[in-house]
Design goal:
heterodimer, A: 87 residues, alpha+beta, 5-stranded mixed β-sheet, 5 strands, 23% helix, globular, B: mainly beta, Methylamine Dehydrogenase, Chain H, 4-stranded antiparallel β-sheet
Chain lengths: 87, 391
């Protein structure tokens, strides 16, 4: 199962959500669907309705930039990161 | 105090007949202070919501915040029917959502389920306004559209009729975006509602949102080739007088206006003000002809004219205006006040509050006669609303 790391600013929006979870998914999109099933509303925080990752949400699979279609292997590490932005 | 008088005729004054306001005013005075236990001032800021709280004397205030995880909160409103505070917000990372607190801001939840124009539709950038009425909750979005919740903000449905108006493709954004920033429900009839969109104008529905009519006749659009178009006006804020749903006021990009007929016709009431430009407008909770505006220098950076902070009040529906500045900074005050950032409470006498785009909150507990700075170092303030919580 892939390990998905969630940012602190996201888990504060979903009380009870951990910093990382083990997810069975073939793509980043499937991993986010898994998150949505466990914490309703999380998908809307990460994706817009195109559907695509929100512009300031970055996902890395095994250190490489990813999209919703990027494949995930059983031993993958998936990092969800709020991008540098703000002021 | 300066006072000025517009050239609006006495005929204008005669046309207006306050509806039941006088006979109710005594009743309202009895209720507001005697029964209330706390006054809340709800602040939406760039870095979260804040709540100022006082007893009805409004002499000392306690500040709480930032709330809503520091999201940019464009509007926060209390629903007295359910005791819920709703907040319309957006996160640079996580997008728009409506926040909700059922314990006066101690804890919050959020949802944006259903707040979408669908796959292939425009992305929703922000939520600008949230208002509860008749058991429903409404949210205004950018790009301009209206959403309704019938389960207390858990799920939302797009009120499609508004964006089906034939003028929708021509709606253009103002500096703040193409935002539906004001929702004015009819106080008694759930089917009637007014919304205001920058820069498309005011729209009215009498059938619960299925169809909408522009309500912009008589409102200037100096920046368009046609000065009085059917739509395209840059309404900055729209308010309804107490107990008279037909009496509306608006601060527009191009003047201050009053309508006696629910927006069918508008009459400009800017004369006597130092500038016809400003963002917010507020109306007294019991006196339909008492309104406040905050004129800004339209050409000089949209700040207080000459750096002298002032609120302007009219007690006759905009025929005459009085400058109210006692206690406000009278030099080097190059501050701005945005469209949602002026509010009035329901106490007796009414409290008036405004927040600046540089994070100061000024408050008056005597209807604007005197002012005090109640918070000096907040983030930029987008919105100010009040709630009087009865014991």
């Amino acid at each position: 199962m892939a390990r998905v790391y969630l940012p602190g600013s996201l888990i504060r929006l979903f009380p009870g959500a951990p910093r990382h979870v083990e997810v069975e998914a073939a793509t980043v999109g499937e991993a986010i669907a898994w998150l949505e099933a466990h914490w309703p509303g999380m998908s809307s925080r990460l994706c817009d309705t195109e559907p695509a990752l929100r512009p300031h949400i970055k996902v890395f699979v095994d250190g490489e930039p990813a999209t919703l279609c990027t494949p995930i292997a059983a031993a993958s590490e998936v990092l969800i990161v709020p991008a540098v932005s703000g002021g | 105090m300066y006072s000025s008088r517009s050239t609006c005729s006495h005929a204008c004054r005669a046309r207006y007949k306050p509806r039941r306001a006088e006979q109710h005013s005594g009743e309202a005075k009895e209720t507001a202070n005697a029964m209330s236990s706390k006054v809340l001032v709800l602040l939406g800021t760039k870095k979260g919501g804040f709540i100022l709280e006082s007893d009805p004397s409004r002499r000392a205030w306690h500040l709480r915040g930032p709330l809503c995880e520091g999201w940019s909160i464009l509007h926060m409103q209390y629903d007295p029917r359910s005791g819920t505070i709703y907040a319309a917000g957006v996160s640079e990372w996580y997008g728009p959502a409506v926040w909700k607190s059922t314990d006066l801001g101690a804890t919050w939840t959020h949802s944006s389920e259903g707040i979408t124009y669908g796959d292939g539709g425009p992305q929703i950038r922000k939520l600008w306004h949230v208002t509860a009425a008749h058991g429903a909750v409404y949210a205004g979005a950018d790009p301009a559209g209206l959403f309704r919740s019938d389960d207390g903000g858990l799920t939302w449905t797009h009120v499609e009729g508004l964006r089906e108006h034939p003028s929708c493709p021509s709606w253009g954004p103002g500096n703040g975006g193409l935002c539906l920033h004001t929702i004015v429900p009819h106080p008694h009839d759930p089917a009637q509602m007014w919304v205001a969109i920058s820069a498309a104008g005011t729209f009215y529905t009498a059938d619960g949102g299925k169809t909408w009519q522009p309500r912009n006749r008589g409102v200037r659009a100096d920046y368009l080739p046609e000065r009085y178009p059917e739509t395209g006006q840059c309404v900055h804020k729209l308010v309804m007088a107490p107990r008279d749903p037909m009496l509306l006021y608006q601060q527009n990009h191009c003047g201050v206006y009053r309508s006696y007929d629910g927006g069918e016709h508008w009459e400009e009431i800017s004369q006597g003000l130092p500038s016809d430009f400003g963002f917010p407008i507020a109306v007294h909770p019991r006196e339909p002809q008492t309104i406040w505006v905050i004129p800004l220098d339209a050409e000089g950076g949209r700040v207080m004219p000459e750096g002298k902070a002032a609120v302007w009040r009219s007690r006759d529906g905009g025929i005459t205006w009085q400058r109210q500045a006692t206690g406000l900074p009278h030099e080097h005050a190059f501050i701005g006040v945005l469209r949602e950032a002026l509010a009035v409470d329901t106490c007796e006498p009414a409290g008036v509050y405004f927040g600046t785009s540089t994070g100061q909150l000024f408050a008056s507990s005597d209807e604007g006669a005197t002012w005090k700075l109640q918070a000096a170092y907040l983030p930029p303030i987008w919105s100010v609303e009040t709630a009087v919580i009865e014991a």
